[in-house]
Amino acid sequence: MRRGDWDAGTAFFADDIVIRIPGRSEFAGEHRGRQAAVDYIAAAVARARGHEVELELVDTLVSGDRVALVVRERFGREEGALGISRVNVYRVRGGPRCRPRRRASPRP
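Given the sequence above, the corresponding structure tokens read:
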């Protein structure tokens, strides 16, 4: 994802991926399946409406069958940038495919 290659990044998602989006937005809730995850990411990026979207990997934590990525995202918008800090927790099963559990907290 650092190279901006979303297809390569999402190729690691398991077919039965489950993502949970916190909050009260139209995206909030549980989304199942690789296509649902890809659609969510595309919709979130589309909200930037042609403005820059930045993803910064802050830290990586690894143990047994889990990987946690601490990330900061910044979405450019007409009304000002939106920064989000979150931790994605992935459970690794049978190879490189992963299942993330998303926890997000918006930053002002």
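Helices lie at 6-10, 34-46. Try to locate this feature in the token string yourself.
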